[in-house]
Structures are given as structure tokens and as C-alpha cells.
Write a structure and sequence with these properties.
heterodimer, A: 410 residues, alpha+beta, six-stranded mixed β-barrel, 15 helices, 12 strands, 54% helix, 18% strand, B: alpha/beta, Rossmann fold
């Protein structure tokens, strides 16, 4: 019966109830929808970063991270491969690479770039390489002269497929190495900077070019997608590998390799909570004001109830129940609207209109918003929990009305 | 004044002073009065004589500045708000001049609500509410909301609600003030019947002559003191 009474009280003034419900619905909807969009951007940033040759785990020479030169290479990759094949889960993939800085030049231009020696058979699916070929073709295994460059680099060098590009870097004998490669194809990446930075040759060509023997600078491991944010599982896998790998190897997870991104992601949840609070504060004013008006309008009624023997705690409980009904309806509608919005945008939002801006933050061209269970619970908990808390003021005010002052109220 | 078991209410040298700004208003100036069980008493007097104040003090809605009030053998003065609420819930029925019933509830629900607070089981609540509404002449109006009831019918609902909780005493503050004489008379007849049939003590505050005609005892107040006490 209490619920029935509170329900009827809520609808006493439908217009006012409609206004406050609208505020709660918009609050919940914006929290969810913008939260989902932010979550999509964050995922896009992380996915881009991992796809840009980082992977989930890398095995390197211990000195390579601080000094990424060919001297700091793994000289016995076969032993590393044995360990990885034995200890990685079946759905994980890995490939060896040589990755050093160098200079690319032709008659028109000269740019600093990163030379990446890859195993063409294994690299596709491990990084962005092979995802989007713009022109020509990808490298074939055993291609000693071929090179694949980004479309943006090709454009800036004013060259084309089939033309030569000269790479220059320091080799393992500390001499300057220089060699002309023939452009086989170009790739497209999420970010133009990536297209300009990386050039791909085969691992065999890189080993020969850099006089590195059978050495590699890293083994890049890609684990199943769900492992990305499961940092505990990631660390456990890395630890297990470190135990098995020979001395002179370092096992680094993406958390070690991208500390700035990790820091940004750690702050993300705090930003989300802050955003929820800002939206809630705006909503709270409306909620408190409405409940206060509803209480003051019913001063005589609360006085009557007290005269009949209702205790202040019952009155507080009844007002809070009305508040809960408002919050529950508002949240339900806000959640439905939030999910509908995310569903409508499930094809992704094309961010190319702000390409340079989004590139600055490492966000891809397509952002797919999504709602996590944690975000859903946070939004509902913030609105419900704090909503009830701000309703305490009008509820306590109602509880303090005395019958005598209520009866003299006009 | 000595307590006797037949006294429903004992008012012992009760004063009530209100402060309005710098002015002190003596609403009651040391009243002593005893009301027996089953009485049908009117507190009469002009506006400002202290009728409503005395009724509020008996009902525990307000506390006296000094003096004691004993209701049904128990001291009311000095009780906590929570105990006063319990006492009002279980021992006292109220009928006010206006704003008597809750607008979002039907007649039956209004009557049931007080039993809900008492913890009466749902089935018993409904049965008792229906029976008392039939008794006060609202047999076909159980499910009507206050807006669909006339002033007299609303007052009947209020009386039904006051009686249904099985109180020791019903306090009615000018119950006929907003009613026309025919409706007021009907209400008074109904309350007189309740008083006789159920033995419930009724105390009215009024300056309605018709109420005084129905009352078996009239206590007249003037300037916060008893000026006359007549039993018919």
C-alpha cells in the first residue's frame, strides 16, 4: 500500500513529474551514450597502438628498449621460437622482426623512417601490415629487394610502384649500410603518421642488409583480443614465458611498452566518474527542487499524517520511496535510450572529419561506441545512490513538519 | 486532582503560552479539568479562548508550558515524539475542520491507512474499513476519491477513520464548521450514535450551537480559563 500511495503521489502533478523525469532520462542517456562513445574512442586508441607493431607481448634483448639498434638483438631466435611454440596458447600468434631507425631517400625527398624486417607469412594478422593494401602487392617470402611503404610516404616522395627507394642505417658491424629497394606496394593505416613512419622489407632482407646473421630485434606476440584489458592474465603469461626463455631476453607487455597509454587508460575511469558527477550535479538541482516543492505543497497532509500517528521516519521513508520511483522510471527510460543510441551507432562513427585531431590522440577513423557492464552499473549507481541522497533533504524536511504548524499552514 | 479509573482525560493546572515576536500570548492560563469515559463533550467559547489549543494538548500535538495531562491513566506530558506518535496512533482519533483526508486515496484506503500504520493484517483492514464506511452511511462510496465526495461525506470518512483504529477518545476540532446545517446535523447524529453504540469518548471544540445541543457536557472557555462547565 505504501508503494501504491507513493506511486499516486508521484503522479499528482503529471507536468512536474514529466519535467523531472525528462531531466533524469537525459542525464542517464547522456552518461551512457557519451560514456559509450568515450569507451569506443579509448578502445580504438588502444587497438591502434597494439596494432602498430606493439602486440600484446614482445621479447627483446634487455637493452633494446632503451637503445633500439641492431647491436641489441636476439642472436638465437630459434630457441625463443621453441619456447613460444610450446608455451603460448593455441590461439596466440607470434612473429620475429627486425626494427631499426633509418633514413629513406630518393631523388625528391629524404625522411627518417623505421625499417621493419618482417616474415611476410606470419606478419599479416599480427599488426596493421596486410590489413589495407592501397596499391601494388605485399612482400613475398624470400623477396630480397622488395619494399612496402605507406601511401602517405609514397605521395610525399612523389614516387610510384616499381620505383626505387634507398634505405640507409647502421648495420651490426657499426658501419653505415645503404641499399636500394624496389617499391612493391603501399599500405593504408589508421593514421597518416603511421604511413609515413614505417617501411617493410622481408626479415631475410633485413638480416642481410644489416649483417645481423639470423638475429632479430624482437618477437611480437598477439594474444586473443579478450586478453588486452585483462592485465592480470597478461602479466601471468609474460611471467610464465620469462621463466622459460633463455637468459639475455626481456619479456615486455604492452603495459611496459606503452606506459603513457597505460597512464591515460588508468585516468579514463576517473574522468568518466567525474563526467557522471558533473551531469548528476545539474540533475540533482532539479530533483531536489521538485521534491522540495512537492513536500511544501503537502505540508498540511504531512501534518495530518503525523497527527494520525505516523512517525517522522515513516514520512521520510515515504518521500524517499517517491524519489526512488522517479529515479527508477527515469533510469529505465534513460538506459533504454542509451542502449538504443549505441545500437544505432553500432556500425561505428566515422571520425575522418576530424582526422588530424583524432590522430593526435591515436584514435582510429572509425569509433564504435559500446557500453560495458561496469559503466552501466556506475551510471545507475551514481544516479540512484546520489539521487536518494539529495532527496534526503526534502524528506527530512517533511519528517520535521509538526501537526500544529501544518494545520496553521494555508 | 486525583486520578480515578473513570477519568479518560485529566488536565491538571495546564498553561500554554505562545511567543509572537516580543509578545507573549497566554492561550491557556492554568486549566484543570477531568473528562470521563464515554463523554460527549463540547469545548465551547469564542475565537482565541483556547479551545483548539486545549484539544491539541490533549491529543499530544503540542506540549503544555506547564501543568500535566493524563490520558487513559497515562501521563502524556514529557513523552518523546515517538511515544506521542504511538499514543496518537493507538489511543486517539482525530477529526479536523478541513484537509482531513489524503487526496490520493479512496475513502476505503483512507480508512485503511491508519490501520496499516497500526500493523493490522490486510484482510482485516479491508473488512473493518468496509464495515465502518457502511456504518457511517457511505456504503456505495468506498472507492471514491476525496474529490468525488462532498464536504459532509469527507467528514464522515474522517470520522470512520477516527473510529476504525479503536481509539479511547476522538478529538474533533470544529468538525461541522465547513458544513451546511443539514449535513452538520447528520454528522453529529452519526457521531452521537457511535458514542452510544461503541462507548467512544468524543471531545469537540466548537462554537456551533448545534454541536452544543448534541453535547451532553459543555465546557465553556474564556481567556484560557474554564468559565462554565455544564452537564445536561
Amino acid at each position: 500500500m505504501h508503494l501504491q500511495v507513493s506511486w499516486r503521489n508521484v503522479w499528482r502533478n503529471p507536468k512536474r513529474t514529466g519535467i523531472i523525469l525528462t531531466a533524469i532520462i537525459i542525464g542517464a542517456w547522456t552518461m551512457l551514450a557519451f560514456g559509450a562513445l568515450s569507451r569506443g574512442m579509448m578502445t580504438s586508441t588502444l587497438s591502434n597502438a597494439l596494432n602498430t607493431l606493439t602486440g600484446h607481448i614482445q621479447i627483446q634483448h634487455p637493452a633494446f628498449r632503451d637503445d633500439p639498434v641492431i647491436d641489441n638483438r636476439l642472436t638465437a631466435p630459434a630457441r625463443v621460437a621453441d619456447v613460444l611454440e610450446q608455451h603460448l596458447p593455441g590461439n596466440a600468434a607470434f612473429a620475429f622482426r627486425i626494427q631499426v631507425n633509418g633514413v629513406a631517400s630518393n631523388a625528391r625527398n629524404s625522411e627518417s623512417i623505421t625499417i621493419v624486417g618482417i616474415d611476410p607469412a606470419k606478419e599479416a594478422g599480427l599488426s596493421f601490415y596486410g590489413d589495407n593494401t592501397a596499391q601494388g602487392k605485399l612482400l613475398a617470402p624470400g623477396d630480397y629487394r622488395g619494399i612496402v611503404v605507406g601511401q602517405a610516404l609514397l605521395d610525399s616522395f612523389e614516387t610510384k610502384i616499381g620505383r626505387k627507394l634507398v634505405l640507409m642505417t647502421r648495420d651490426a658491424t657499426l658501419e653505415t649500410a645503404s641499399k636500394a629497394f624496389k617499391i612493391r606496394g603501399t599500405f593504408r593505416a589508421e593514421m597518416e603518421a603511421t604511413e609515413k613512419q614505417f617501411v617493410f622489407i622481408t626479415l631475410d632482407a633485413a638480416q642481410s642488409f644489416l649483417k645481423a646473421g639470423t638475429g632479430v630485434t624482437s618477437a611480437c606476440i598477439k594474444l586473443p583480443e579478450e586478453t588486452t584489458m585483462d592485465l592480470e592474465a597478461l602479466a601471468k603469461t609474460a611471467k610464465a614465458l620469462a621463466r622459460e626463455l633463455p637468459e639475455g631476453t626481456a619479456v615486455l607487455t604492452w603495459v611496459d611498452l606503452l606506459p603513457l597509454l597505460k597512464g591515460y587508460l588508468s585516468m579514463f575511469d576517473s574522468f568518466m566518474l567525474l563526467w557522471y558527477l558533473v551531469v548528476f550535479v545539474a540533475m540533482a538541482f532539479g530533483l531536489t527542487n521538485t521534491m522540495l516543492m512537492a513536500v511544501l505543497e503537502r505540508t498540511r497532509e504531512f501534518g495530518l499524517l503525523k497527527a494520525l500517528g505516523m512517525k517522522p521516519s515513516w514520512i521520510i521513508r515515504n518521500v524517499l520511496l517517491e524519489c526512488l520511483i522517479l529515479l527508477a522510471i527515469g533510469l529505465a527510460a534513460g538506459n533504454i535510450l542509451g542502449f538504443a543510441t549505441v545500437q544505432a551507432l553500432s556500425g561505428g562513427i566515422d571520425m575522418s572529419f576530424m582526422a588530424e585531431g583524432s590522430e593526435f590522440f591515436g584514435i582510429g577513423h572509425l569509433v564504435i561506441p559500446y557500453i560495458t557492464l561496469k559503466d552501466l552499473l556506475s551510471v545507475n549507481a551514481v544516479i540512484m545512490g546520489l539521487g536518494v541522497l539529495v532527496c534526503l533533504y526534502p524528506a527530512v524536511k517533511a519528517g520535521r513538519i509538526t501537526p500544529v504548524e501544518a494545520m496553521s499552514h494555508t | 486532582m486525583e486520578h480515578t479509573p473513570n477519568h479518560m482525560v485529566e488536565i491538571i493546572d495546564v498553561s500554554k503560552t505562545y511567543t509572537q515576536g516580543k509578545l507573549e500570548v497566554h492561550a491557556l492560563a492554568g486549566i484543570s479539568l477531568a473528562l470521563d469515559r464515554g463523554e460527549f463533550t463540547a469545548l465551547a467559547g469564542p475565537s482565541g479562548s483556547g479551545k483548539t489549543t486545549l484539544l491539541n494538548l490533549i491529543g499530544g500535538l503540542d506540549s503544555p508550558s506547564c501543568g500535566r495531562i493524563v490520558l487513559d491513566g497515562k501521563e502524556v506530558t514529557g513523552l518523546s515524539q515517538s511515544r506521542l506518535a504511538d499514543m496518537r496512533l493507538n489511543k486517539i482519533g482525530f477529526v479536523f475542520q478541513a484537509y482531513n483526508i489524503i487526496p490520493v486515496l479512496s475513502a476505503r484506503e483512507n480508512v485503511e491507512y491508519v490501520m496499516l500504520m497500526q500493523g493490522v493484517p490486510a484482510k482485516e483492514r479491508t473488512d473493518r474499513a468496509r464495515a465502518i464506511l457502511d456504518e457511517v452511511g457511505l456504503a456505495n462510496m468506498h472507492d471514491r476519491r476525496p474529490a468525488e465526495l462532498s464536504g459532509g461525506q469527507q467528514q464522515r470518512v474522517a470520522v470512520a477513520r477516527a473510529i476504525v483504529s479503536r481509539p479511547a477518545i476522538v478529538l474533533a476540532d470544529e468538525p461541522t464548521a465547513n458544513l451546511d446545517s443539514a449535513t452538520g446535523q447528520g454528522l453529529l447524529e452519526m457521531m452521537a450514535k457511535m458514542n452510544e453504540k461503541r462507548g467512544v469518548t468524543f471531545i469537540f471544540s466548537t462554537h456551533d450551537k448545534m454541536v452544543m445541543e448534541y453535547a451532553r457536557r459543555i465546557v465553556r472557555l474564556k481567556d484560557g480559563l474554564v468559565s462554565d462547565d455544564t452537564t445536561k
